[in-house]
Amino acid sequence: STWGLSSLLSRERLLHEERENHNMAASPSSLSELEEAIKVLRRERQEVFATVDTEVRAICQTLRERDGEEKYGDLLPQGSAFEGLKVESPNEFDYMLPLAKERPLQNDQSDVALPLVLLEETFRAPVVEDFQARVEAAVLAHPEWLCDADRTRPAMMLTWRRLGGLNEVTADLVIAVPLPDDSWSRFSRRRLRRWASVARLAQALGVTVTPKLFAMGKVGAGAPPNAWRLSFAQVEKTLSKGADSHDEPTNTHRKTCLRIVKYYLRDACQDTSSGMSSYQIKTAWLTLVHAIRDPAAWSRKRILRRSKQLVRTLAAAYRTKDLPHYFVPTCNLLAGTTDAQSQVAERACANALAELDLVSQNPKKG
After folding, report:
1. 265 alpha-carbon distance from chain centroid
2. Environment class of residue 340 by beta-carbon count within 10 Å: exposed (0-12), middle (13-18) or buried (19+)?
């Protein structure tokens, strides 16, 4: 309910302010303090997730009732809020709403920085504009939400009509197109097989479940009108959720490593002058997990070492402006990075390493 979510967000704001006050007072000085700082927050936050999810599903149900139930597939939550990787206040959520009908690929046309595909010529970009207009109309039936009508971005940003600042909640909703299962043969099925051997996910990936590939939104000026961006979000969510398997002889902390690095680089990700994003950090983490297969290397006693290794990997990537997309390595996520952004990002990595060194050198038991 509206009041229920408002109450949950008020409690969330207090938790957020407590954390910020703690961070201003002192940075974590031990692994235990660091783990506390990055803890995926408590039941109240899970309730925020559940409440926002219910609200967004209600908006999509209005869309279905107007357009026909058969037009759309299942609503797909994505991103760190749903992967257990969020280290900040959970006030941003991402969703894909796929069309029900698969669309064949004409061919793939990945550019330097983005993994792109060309859909069949009859399926052109106006589909996105039509979807945005329909979402905007559907949101009118839910007066507690506002809809950003910015047509320059593929996602529609839905904003909870509450007080500003920390109490503001947004949900990005973007149209997606399911691609045929054999599309994977053009991309990175080998990547999934290698990861499955690392994280013991063989049964979840490629055996009992075929990962679904989506083309999401559309790309900007200069691209053909039928060019859409590949989304690996659902596969990434499956990998992240199963990254620390319970059947391994060593209790692993792969996701803890990612949370630690995101914690120390969270300000840089909000700073546009750095060009840094949480997806770049996640990409480097996927690549590192792919490369280091020994579960013992991801034990708790080695997690600070792995975290520093991940930061060094990122620093090298920003220095060389080269970070291959995990699933489509021919795409360089840093292709458009400027010299100034590279320098700011490198400084942020250096600061993160200094903080991690202090935690590592602390004789206090974690």
Report:
1. 15
2. exposed
> Angle at Cα 282 formed by Cα 236 and Cα 89, nearest 5°?
95
Name the strand (E) or helix (H) holding 209: none
Helices (H), the chain: 2-25, 31-37, 43-67, 80-83, 126-139, 189-199, 233-241, 254-264, 266-270, 278-291, 303-320, 339-361
What residues contact 334, with CB distance under 8 A and at least 6 apart? 113, 275, 280, 317, 318, 321, 322, 323, 342
Average pLDDT over residues 290-295: 86
* CA pair distance 314, 279, nearest whole angstrom: 12
pTM over 0.90: no
How are beta strands 214-216 and 105-108 bridged, if at all? unpaired
Q: How confident is the model at residue 56 (pLDDT cuts 50, 70, 90)?
A: very high
pLDDT score, position 166: 47
Q: How confident is the model at residue 220 (pLDDT cuts 50, 70, 90)?
A: low
Tokens of 86: 């969020």
- For residues 161 and 147, what is the distance between their CA atoms, to the nearest angstrom? 10
Confidence of residue 184 (pLDDT cuts 50, 70, 90): low
Q: Is the pLDDT of residue 321 over 60?
A: yes
Tokens of 297: 């290397």
CA distances from 175 to 50, 75, 294 (A): 22, 10, 39
Do residues 178 and 212 lie in contact, with contact meaning Cβ atoms separated by under 8 Å? yes
Residues 6+ apart with CB under 8 A from 310: 257, 258, 261, 281, 284, 285, 288
Q: CB-based contacts of 181: which residues, under 8 Å, 6+ apart?
A: 210, 212, 213
DSSP SS3 for 318: helix
pLDDT of 363 higher than 70: no
3-state SS, residue 11:
helix
Whose CA is closest to 177, among 263, 106, 270, 283? Answer: 106
- Average pLDDT, integer, range 253-281: 92
**Above 90 in pLDDT, residue 118?**
no
Angstrom distance (rounded) from CA 189 to CA 206: 8
